[in-house]
Amino acid sequence: MFYETKHSSRDFFKSLGLNFNPFKALIVPRPIGWISTIDENGVANLAPYSFFNAVSSDPPMLYFSSGGEHEQDGGEKDSLRNIRQNGQFVFNLVSSELTKAMNDSASPAPRAIDEFEMTGLTKSPSRLVRPPRVAQSPVQLECTLHQFIDLPPSPSGKSNIMVIGHVVGVHIDENLIVEGRVDILKAQPTARLGYLDYCNVTQSFALTRPNWPLEEKPKKS
Question: Given CB 3.0 to 4.6 Å as the disulfide criterion, which of 107, 121, 123, 161 pairs with 132?
Fold first, then answer.
């Protein structure tokens, strides 16, 4: 199957035998950016973003991308609005135990709603930034804003904005550290697949980067 991305209508994908645009089901699994922010009145916000990842290790930097408007109140979504106000946010890792709370925090609640309180999560104060951390999360990264990047809008005119943050503080649950390394399988991180599907990371394997030139492959007899 091949198609050009200039075609985006439901009818077009139906003609290919697809019920939906498959793009988001092809770049998987995607780590979930569970982003906590705080507004000028001290109201905390917590929201998951499936377009999220690290972009640099030295200096440590990450990004998340937000599209569309606030469903209840219009204008920018709370995360973007709050970061524009104070230039700070926190990434909270979604472990398997936090999957339901993460999904609940995606509810399009009014601006005045604190998603920590709505989901029963505990706030933990950050060291270097104002937004609180999810106390139950095994990893939290305190971030300051590096840059907003306006991406092309959707065909329907919805905005797409990339937020790049500089990680200034790292919190790791001591239970994840085994023999000097982070054993992330102990957290079983939740990742996004396509459609309404998710997965948990429960297995890993190691590969050693090969030297150059590559070893000659054995010839078939």
Answer: 123
Give the domain extent around 69: 28-200
Residue 203, SS3 per DSSP: coil
Instruction: Let me know: does 142 contact 73? Beta carbons within 8 Å.
Output: no
Pairing mode of beta strands 60-67, 33-38: unpaired
> What's the whole-number average pLDDT of the chain?
94
Alpha helices in the chain (DSSP H): 10-15, 78-86, 99-104, 115-119
3-state secondary structure of 9: coil
**CATH number of domain containing 185:** 2.30.110.10
Residue-level pLDDT at 69: 78
Domain-located, residue 18: no
- Residue 82 in any domain: the answer is yes
Report, as an integer, the average pLDDT of 93-100.
98
In a domain, 89, yes or no: yes
Query: How many domains in the chain?
Result: 1
Q: How much is the pTM?
A: 0.93
DSSP letter string over 83-143? HHHHSEEEEE---GGGHHHHHHTTS---TT--HHHHHTPPEE--SSSSSPEETT-SEEEEE
- Kindly state whether residue 1 falls inside one of the protein's structural domains: no
